[in-house]
Design brief:
Blueprint (H helix, E strand, L loop, with lengths): L7 H17 L19 H14 L7 E5 L5 H8 L3 E6 L2 H10 L4 E4 L11 E7 L7 H11 E14 L18 H9 L3 E8 L1 H4 L1 H27 L1 H14 L2 H12 L5 H7 E10 L1
Parallel strand pairs: 1-2, 1-4, 2-3, 4-5
Antiparallel strand pairs: 5-7, 6-7
């Protein structure tokens, strides 16, 4: 029997959710809206609440049947249910699906990718809250459209690549998503119209700086611990170094070092290469 592969995604999600709970008391995984707020860890919860409020403000009026596509840990669904909406969640991760069942037990769960999920519908709203970029562009909007009722709408809050986004890079550029030009071209081929488009790029970009500062704090602590271990426990230090060299490929070690010790991900690069939009779409 071969060795079981470590589920690094689940480990990362568990760590991220634990950090979110510690900072904010909830398990949000999205950008914050920082307009009028000091960019500091203590304001993460307020910034995320402000983002949710802005997102919900673009929803149609009344009590809705909502398909929350890529519902994270269920925090958005939890808020929507508290407002009186009925919610079904689509999420591909078994770990996140388990958190959704805890945070939003009233929601109907579809543990699958959006491409493979089979929600019945029709829905008043298909919601993509920072999940649109993970679904193939030629499938996301057509399938959502097929699940809408006659007056149903699609609401997208996500990052898109601007024309300035590098086509090739020696390292990962912060942001990403579908190229905005390709998205707009795809939209023109469908019987959909833009009801509202709001550019939040500047307002969400401080989230990048705050995230990077957190990793730098962790990196600073690791450097101090590393120096102390090398000085006082050289044999243990050497064994750990060799073990990491065997377990983690060189390119992943380099990427981790960049994340922990550099500042190559920042709000200036984010705004230069991306556009973050709230888009409310209805039938043409």
């Amino acid at each position: 029997m071969g060795k079981k592969k470590l589920d690094t995604q689940a480990i990362g999600l568990d760590t991220g959710l634990a950090l979110s709970r510690w900072l904010t008391g909830s398990e949000h995984l999205h950008y914050g809206l920082w307009t009028g707020l000091t960019v500091a860890a203590g304001n993460v919860g307020a910034a995320q609440d402000a983002y949710s409020a802005r997102l919900f403000a673009h929803m149609p009026a009344g009590k809705l049947s909502i398909l929350d596509i890529g519902g994270g840990a269920g925090e958005t669904a939890k808020k929507l249910i508290a407002l009186g909406h009925s919610v079904e969640i689509v999420v591909p991760s078994a770990f996140l699906a388990a958190r959704c069942r805890v945070n939003a037990p009233q929601a109907v769960m579809h543990e699958a990718t959006f491409q493979d999920a089979n929600p019945v519908g029709p829905f008043d709203l298909c919601l993509f809250s920072e999940s649109f970029q993970y679904i193939p562009l030629d499938q996301a909007l057509p399938k959502a459209l097929s699940l809408l009722g006659p007056k149903g709408e699609i609401l997208i809050g996500d990052c898109f690549r601007s024309p300035a986004y590098p086509t090739q890079s020696g390292g990962r550029i912060c942001g990403g998503g579908h190229p905005i030009k390709k998205f707009r071209a795809a939209l023109k081929t469908l019987p959909l119209r833009v009801i509202v488009e709001e550019d939040l790029t500047q307002a969400v970009s401080p989230s990048i700086d705050l995230e990077q500062s957190f990793f730098n704090v962790v990196g600073r602590g690791l450097l101090s611990a590393n120096a102390e271990l090398a000085k006082k426990r050289p044999i243990l230090y050497w064994l750990m170094y060799r073990a990491l060299a065997v377990l983690i490929p060189a390119h992943k070690r380099a990427a981790l070092a960049d994340r922990l010790f550099q500042q190559n991900r920042n709000s200036a690069l984010f705004t230069a290469n991306n556009v973050y939009l709230l888009l409310r779409l209805g039938r043409a």
